[in-house]
Amino acid sequence: MKVLIFELVLIAVLIPLNIIVKKHVPKWKGKAGEKLVKRILSKLDPESYYVLHDVTVHTEYGDTTQIDHIVIAETGVFV
């Protein structure tokens, strides 16, 4: 009987925890990845590269979208 109660309590805790993790982990990974790219791009020579972060662009449909990083150099524009 004690084992059954323990299992029910464990399930009652793990299901909401699983839902929370599945909802938030992708956001956390995205923020960590964005931070890493920002740190790497900050090491580029400012004389040769112009770096923009978090650029908001208006679309033809009246919406907006965000571009995380844009690098402008003599060799091209990298998005």
Automatic annotation (TrEMBL):
Question: Pfam families attached here?
Answer: NERD
What top-level branch of life does the organism fall under?
Bacteria
**Domain (NERD) ranges:** 29-79
Q: Which UniProt keywords apply?
A: Membrane, Transmembrane, Transmembrane helix
Residue spans crossing the bilayer = 6-21
- Protein name listed in UniProt: NERD domain-containing protein
Q: Which organism is it from?
A: Bacillus mycoides
